[in-house]
Design brief:
About 30% of the residues lie in helices and about 20% in strands. It is an alpha+beta fold. Helix 4 crosses helix 5. Catalyzes the ATP-dependent phosphorylation of thiamine-monophosphate (TMP) to form thiamine-pyrophosphate (TPP), the active form of vitamin B1.
């Protein structure tokens, strides 16, 4: 049976001679990296645990893709260019067929976005995957709330302004339906809902395209409502979400019905679309930028002053506020049950807005710890 160093050399060590900024790669005690001139580093780390964040019997290539995708999504949420990654892989035993598939899924996505694996670790234990990603952003030192903060080339949570539109890329909610499909025994990886769950697409190019057009942003890991609450708190504003403007994919409505589809968008999670605020005058430029990426963006609400209330997310139906149903996943919330290896949840360390109902909707939330670790304010 090969040891850890042989496994690293066989499946994860690659020629990094052309990788930008890599002064010393795997093989020493540390990697040595150099940021480009005029750039600062964005760093984020996520852990994915079998039976909590992904089904342990999912295809190995999908697990490798997914583990890296949720990390790349954090860089996308900041508008950062991916550069380097570290991988800590814990395995219950050595299954070389599984490792071959995992590495293939990981490297294929890494190659697409030009991110170099510069180090890591392989050890024995329950299956879990921890990835640290490093990206680059232009150095900008002024506070986010300055009047010209929209033009700073960084997406943060604290830059939203009163009157900004709220928009989301793509079609959130599909991954939640994919999780349900997996739990019901569906294994057709071409199923659009299941594909969205097992192989999410990090919106790296969208983040780069929108970082000078949007005022604030993050990735949708815990559902639109719970993640928008983060922007509200960071920006000290409230948000009015129009239920009738939520984008509902036909496949999602077919799988869950119209009401279930709306709940999946609001509270499902695992989508890794970008949730943004932007000035109305930048809307057409943003849509034009995304058109070249063949990616849609839908306006779903508007930021507004919080007044005397705490910042919150309000669900509106033709201008009338509605009671919220469900809540986003939190790993250590008393209302969330623990899971076994046989059932996987969606979940993360966030909370929904002040308008939430008291009980969970049973769907869970996200596939990764949201941006509380590295690049988020």
């Amino acid at each position: 049976m090969p040891g850890e160093f042989e496994l690293i050399a066989r499946y994860f060590q690659r020629d990094l001679s052309g990788a930008p900024g890599v002064l010393l790669g795997p093989g020493d005690d540390c990697a040595l990296l150099a940021a480009s001139d005029g750039m600062q580093m964005a760093v984020s780390v996520d852990t994915s645990v079998a039976g909590v964040h992904f089904p342990p019997d999912a295809p190995a290539a999908s697990i490798g893709h997914r583990a890296l995708a949720v990390n790349l999504s954090d860089l996308a949420a900041m508008g950062a260019t991916p550069r380097w990654a570290l991988l800590a892989l814990t395995l219950p035993d050595v299954d070389e067929d599984w490792l071959h598939g995992f590495a293939a899924g990981f490297h294929a996505l890494a190659d697409r976005y030009g991110i170099a694996l510069v180090g890591g670790d392989v050890t024995r234990g329950p299956l879990s995957i921890t990835i640290t990603v490093h990206g680059e952003l232009p150095c900008v030192l002024e506070p986010a709330q300055q009047a010209d903060s929209v033009t700073r080339p960084i997406l943060r949570r604290d830059g939203a302004r009163e009157g900004d539109l709220i928009a989301v890329t793509g079609l959130p909610g599909l991954a939640h339906a994919g999780l349900k499909a997996w739990q019901e025994g569906v294994r057709d990886v071409l199923n659009p809902c299941l594909a969205a769950y097992l192989r999410p697409e990090p919106r790296v190019d969208a983040g780069l395209a929108l970082r000078e057009l949007a005022s604030a942003g993050l990735d949708v890991s815990d559902g639109v409502m719970g993640d928008l609450a983060h922007i509200c708190r960071a920006s000290q504003l409230s948000a009015a979400l129009e239920l009738g403007e939520l984008p509902l994919a036909p496949e999602l409505v077919t799988a869950l019905g119209e009401q279930g589809a709306r709940e999946a968008v609001l509270n499902g999670g695992d989508d890794y679309e970008l949730l943004l605020t932007l000035p109305e005058e930048n809307l057409e430029a943003a849509r034009l930028a995304l058109r070249s990426l063949n990616l849609s963006m839908n306006v779903i609400g508007r930021m507004q002053a919080a007044g005397s209330d705490a910042p919150r997310v309000m669900l509106m139906d033709n201008g009338v506020e509605q009671a919220a149903t469900g809540q986003s996943w939190q790993h250590f919330s008393a209302s969330q049950a623990s899971v076994t290896q046989g059932s996987v949840t969606q979940g993360s360390d966030t909370q929904v807005s002040a308008t939430q109902a008291s009980g969970p909707d049973g769907s869970g939330g996200d596939a990764s710890s949201s941006n509380a670790n590295g690049v988020a304010p």
